Amino acid sequence: MVVVGAARSGVAAAELLVARGAIVTVLDLRPAVDAADRLTHRGVALELGAHRLETLAAAELIVTSPGVPLEQPVLQAARVRGVDIIGELELASRWIQGRVIAITGTKGKSTTATLVGRILDAAGRRVLVGGNIGVPLSAQVAASTPETVHVVETSSFQLEATTTFRPWIAVWLNIAADHLDRHPTLEAYASAKARIFANQTREDWAVVNADDARVVAFAAPAAARHVDFALSGHIANGFVVDGAWIVRRTGTVIDRLCPLTAVELPGRHMQSNVLAAAAAASIAGAAPEAITEALRGFHGLEHVMEPVGRIGCVRFVNDSKATNVEAARRSIESFADGVVAIVGGRFKGGDLRELRAPLSDRGKAVVAVGEAAPLVRDALADAVPIIDARSMREAVEVAYAAAVPDGVVLLAPACASFDWFRDYAERGQAFKEEVARLTRKTRLKDTESTK
């Protein structure tokens, strides 16, 4: 067996295969990988620095990590020679024993998956949360039982490499231009997402955002029982916000699930995630009390609309996970006015001009950073003042200066982080550290001025 990619998912897949008695070789284009000692200790052979066709073509099975494009010529050549190629998610799904609740979408997957897990835990179910968030599904196989509910965040990269993956409940939150540096078109990206429904039957459930016309269209062929949710409330059957409650409408019957006062997440788009989580958990058997209990005290995930400080009347919010234009737009729209948005990084597609309207309405300025800074300036220069910054420290400092006296400094990059940082988490941590440093610097300055 050959595993391509020695990051988190690839390592988990290799370890799962070894535990099942397979002879495993792991390939990675990097000359060195962090998990080398861990893998070799388990008897895994490593080939680093290249993907050799000889190794791939001789494999009984190839398992790809999500970060590995399936269009690589060596993978295509191996497929032509008859080698079966699947992804890590597909591999793990063949061995888990419990049911799967799978969640996909351009924005909100991690928050929704976490909420579903919290609700089911409050309902007394045995639940494991993972996939594209936290622990890879392959690393959960050993702990899987028939009673386990696996709540799995699934990306387009994971879903495009599935063949038999069949969730009991599949949730599609939304779709917008993203990952167009890897998927050739928005249609291809959406088609990969739609594979979440591909193997479902009438015994399964497809939970669909009725406010997103493209999601509705791509989900239409799904064989599963369709259940809609809509923050707009325009549907007669499904999960909606009705007055001060999240409810399920079934014809003329309205079942109250949770008061909106239990939702402690900022932003209207977060309510959509809560609605989707409540729908999935309710279908899975969670009572309204469990939904309410799980929501109270949940303030969101790190790097997702995370309040990280205040200097005077200027607030700082870390939404580093807003790695696409749609996510950044929703982040900006969460505030009434006074926004100074830090935007940029490694561009991965979409139309940055979609940020013009929300910034024109509520923006003070944009701080353009990273490789995409020229694109940010070209797209937004006549909508809001643009300030360039060459580091996260400079970005935080100039953003604060622009936000004074009472604005919001918002890290909403609309881009990947890979120009300056290892991932969005490292970028968010850098932002938080610079906010803390600036806070200390400002307090010291204020103290000295009063002496």
Mind sketching the topology for me?
Layout: E1 2-4, H1 8-19, E2 25-28, H2 36-41, E3 45-48, H3 53-57, E4 61-64, H4 73-80, E5 84-87, H5 88-93, E6 99-104, H6 109-122, E7 127-131, E8 149-153, H7 156-159, E9 169-172, H8 186-194, E10 205-209, H9 213-219, E11 225-230, E12 238-242, E13 245-250, E14 253-259, H10 268-283, H11 288-295, E15 306-311, E16 314-318, H12 325-332, E17 339-344, H13 356-362, E18 363-369, H14 373-380, E19 386-388, H15 392-403, E20 408-411, H16 424-449
Parallel strand pairs: 1-2, 1-4, 2-3, 4-5, 6-8, 6-9, 7-8, 9-10, 10-11, 11-12, 16-20, 17-18, 17-20, 18-19
Antiparallel strand pairs: 12-13, 13-14, 15-16
Description:
- This protein has a nine-stranded mixed beta sheet, sandwiched between helices. It has a six-stranded mixed beta sheet with strand order 15-16-20-17-18-19, with helices on both faces. The protein has a five-stranded parallel beta sheet with strand order 3-2-1-4-5, with helices on both faces.
- 35% of the residues lie in helices and 22% in strands.
- Helix 6 packs across helix 10.
- The chain has three domains: 88 residues, NAD(P)-binding Rossmann-like Domain (Rossmann fold, 3-Layer(aba) Sandwich); 200 residues, UDP-N-acetylmuramoyl-L-alanine:D-glutamate ligase, CATH 3.40.1190; 144 residues, Mur ligase, C-terminal domain (Protein-Tyrosine Phosphatase, Chain A), CATH 3.90.190.20.
- The chain is globular and about 70 Å long.
- The chain is α/β, with parallel strands linked by helices.
